[in-house]
Amino acid sequence: MSTTEQPLRGLLTRDPSVVAAGAGIFGDALRQQAVPVTDVEWRPPMDGTSEALARVLADPRLTEANAEALRRITAAEAELVRIAPASEVLGLQRGEFLHSGPPLTWERASGPMRGALLGAMLFEGLASTAEEAEQKLAGPDISLAPCHSRGAVGPMAGVISPSMWVFELRDPVHGNVSHCSLNEGLGKVLRYGAYSEEVITRLEWMRDVLGPVLAGAVERHGPVDIRAYLPQMLQMGDEGHNRNRSATLMFLRDLLPHIVAQGDRDPADIAEVCRFVGANDHFALNLVMPACKLAMAAAKDIPGSSVVVTMARNGTDFGIQLAGTGDEWFTAPANTPEGLFLGSYGPEDANPDIGDSAITETAGMGGFVMAAAPAIVRLVGGNVDFALTTTRTMYEITLGEHPSLQVPILEFRGAPIAIDATAVARTGVLPQINTGMAGRVAGTGQVGAGLVTPPAEVFVDALRSLADRVPTRD
Amino acid sequence: MTDSVEIRRGVYHDSVTLMQVSQQVRTAPGVHEALIGMGTELNLGLMREVGFQVPDEAGPNDLVIALRGEDEAALAAGQDKLVAVLAELHERSRATGSTTEVAPRTIGSAARRAPGGIALISTPGQYAVLDALDAVNAGLSVMLFSDNVPLADEVALKDAAAAKDVLVMGPDCGTAVVGGAALGFANVVRPGRIGLVAASGTGAQQVMALLDLAGEGISHCLGLGGRDLSSDVGGRSARQALRALAADESTAHVVIVSKPAAEEVVTELEQLAAELGVPVSWATLGRGLPDLTAAVEQTLTAVGAQAPTWPSWVPVEPRPSSAAAGGRSLRGLYCGGTLADEAMILAEEALGPISSNIPLRGAPQVSGHDTLTGHVVIDFGDDELTQGRAHPMIDPSLRLERIRQQGEDPTCGVLLLDLVLGHGAHQDPAGELAEAVSAARTAATGRGGHLPVVVALVGTEADPQGLQECARMLSTAGAHVFTSNAQAVRAALSHLGTPAPADPSTTTPTQHETGRTDR
């Protein structure tokens, strides 16, 4: 606690300034006296949160716990240390699959999630037809677990199977490790629920060529500082969720000499790897996501903290986790994104929100820094004014500003970082998420991209659980 | 007569704004009722009470618009008026800031933008503690105007504040002056050497205004909320306030103003003041204790100043025999709770128990909605009469109606009123009050009677409404106007022909006998 020379932090010696919440007449009366007044645009808290909020806000641990969470999140670093099969680095066994979002059963899985799991079964050789795969997935021999349960993250369906190669990132400050699959590109791809032969063939090439070539390059390069890409992305007009063009090219620039220097490789393979990475504007999403996951992992398990450390969706449910509530998930039916559609697809074709990629928003990227990426607003159906307002609004539900993730157009103000569940409940302002849209029907692939928010209920439940953990007063 | 009830989702305005909107919509031609409020249980109850059919799905985050008019055309006129009033509000909010600027949504957020200072909180009581905790966690001192905050929350809040070295003034704190800034209801007083610690809003205003009239100034007035000096709260904020004023270079003397306080808390504060070496005088209401005016006079003596003759405006008029007047009962209609308390303490010595909606111990409790019989003092600022409407210092309509009624009542022997000026209060309170006083007196004359009216006018010349001008309007309407509430009460008693009680300021001033909690 700070000690001040003057009692009451100098209340009686300082020139008065007032923050006013509630009836407008009192603020007006102060303005008439030439006292500086900041009016709060007050709203009643979310229904059903008052009691939990009162307990959480009165928890004497709260302020310091949240300050500690903010310190750890902003101090976290992220280095790409190796690329290897999931069976090796995640210990994933045959018949085990990871998926995005909170825990899920086959029965409750949405179309795109089913499509991705079917594709993974075919890819792993666990079934030779989709029908057979479906039967087995409904049976007892296949096990599903959230990526987050292993410290991993996966975009959209987020399915990781043992033979898929994954990035391994490490936070040298806090010692955490995180994993993410390699990005397949756009269109008919597994993560959007497509599982045609074309999809499986690409996955096989990624397993046999892309993975090993990139792994060799990383080995030659040594740890790649992924964390350093993030501030640069914001300066180059990317927000790290729906737009990853700059980081993809930075990554390729850093690894290129080490890719081509692998003389024992077929030059055609080398060329195809370079073409594939360079042509896929989203390739770096799968590096940004685990980097963001490491930042949030640093804040896990801080008793009393109301910081949101996970936001993730499995296509059926939206789930969050708080720093102060351990591994407990708080879930509710996922909303369906609104935005723009590819080709002749329309809103009726879109599946509810899916993917672990909201980890970018959780860590202050994506929708939270939309102001830094005005080029994105058309893709997600907004305008520049909207992007600026969105980022400014996110400061209302976050604890602080990231010292190095800066938004140039806001005079290099730090990104809004560390979502405070109490602020969400008190303001009713929900985190803004930029996202892709998967087709509702298994096998469709991507149908569009847009904007979505979490269902409010997850914050209500999370706060109640956090309130239950507040030690009772003597 | 026809009704309409409309629910609008996703629209929020604060309750005071909506009460003002309701008032304006009521002025539309043919509109008889306009209840426009957020769909809180309280507001929905009020709407149902007057017969509106409110759908069950209305919730606290919905704006509910209930209109009653003579016919469809009247309802349409009400709707038009509402649209116009809301549009004006919208224009006013748009006038601040560019399109992408975002106003702070929480006190914590506002504090991050401009650190330091005070949070002035007047959000609905059931949420106010959340905002206050947010402010305390952000390192701000709090002026908590909201009422209906549970006692346990107040204690927890004040403990949290002490741990962070910030002050919680309130809940239910109506008045504070910090570093010259008047928060809530407060008079414009000259800066000076006397600090106030006040567990009483209008009591503090009376003390401040009298000190100002005596030429003395205020360093700070730290409000505490009416419960701070109770046994339950134990003077938590008072101790912090006293320490801060003791350390404040501009404060030479402290006056502790309070409604009836717990004996052990008073003793503790006296000991603390002695330890801190800060001279303290008490303006604490209670039977047998000095009235506020007497306490101010003692304070003036203590700082080596002289008490003036407190200004009053008494019209010269022939005094009819009390037999002709007929009425024998005292009717006190107050906006200030502490001033009402003071009136009852002084009046019961002469008249015996005074009925009230906030009765002293041993006196009958009546509802402020009842027809008044016998000696009665009503506090229009009490929760019972502010449900669903603003404080009578902002919205005086309920009291004005009651004042007019007294003119018709032959049992009313004298009408005793207060009028508190200052920031936050109604902009033209004297004009409306003078009109009601005039009407009541005319009605009394009309029925062959006579109605003396006495007003305690609490304010200063620097107040936005102006002391002299308000006094002139009231005395023109025939009221006897006093700047001291105690003097006003004595004048009212003399109109009843009863001996005024002795001025207790001649008795030992600092003695606090037990049983001072008079309610």
Write the layout of secondary structure elements.
The complex is a heterodimer of chains A (474) and B (519).
Chain A: E1 18-22, H1 24-32, E2 37-39, H2 50-57, H3 62-75, E3 79-85, H4 86-89, E4 96-99, H5 111-123, H6 130-137, E5 143-146, E6 152-153, E7 165-170, E8 177-181, H7 197-221, E9 224-225, H8 229-235, H9 245-260, H10 267-279, H11 285-297, E10 308-314, E11 317-322, E12 330-333, E13 338-341, E14 354-355, H12 359-362, H13 384-394, E15 398-407, E16 413-419, H14 421-427, E17 433-438, E18 446-452, H15 457-468
Parallel strand pairs in A: 1-2, 4-5, 6-8
Antiparallel strand pairs in A: 3-7, 3-9, 7-8, 10-11, 10-14, 11-12, 13-18, 15-16, 17-18
Helix pairs in contact in A: 2-15, 3-11, 5-6, 5-7, 7-9, 8-9, 9-10, 14-15
Chain B: E1 2-9, H1 15-26, E2 31-38, H2 41-49, E3 62-69, H3 72-94, H4 107-113, E4 118-122, H5 125-137, E5 141-144, H6 151-163, E6 168-169, E7 175-178, E8 181-184, E9 191-199, H7 201-213, E10 218-223, H8 236-247, E11 253-258, H9 263-276, E12 280-284, H10 292-302, E13 312-313, H11 322-325, E14 329-334, H12 337-351, E15 355-356, E16 376-379, H13 383-386, H14 397-408, E17 412-420, H15 429-446, E18 453-458, H16 467-476, E19 480-482, H17 485-495
Parallel strand pairs in B: 4-5, 5-6, 9-10, 9-11, 11-12, 14-16, 14-17, 15-16, 17-18, 18-19
Antiparallel strand pairs in B: 1-3, 2-3, 7-8, 13-19
Organism (chain A): Ornithinimicrobium pratense
InterPro entries (chain A): AllG-like (IPR009499), OXTCase_su_AllG_h-dom (IPR024033)
Protein name (chain A): DUF1116 domain-containing protein
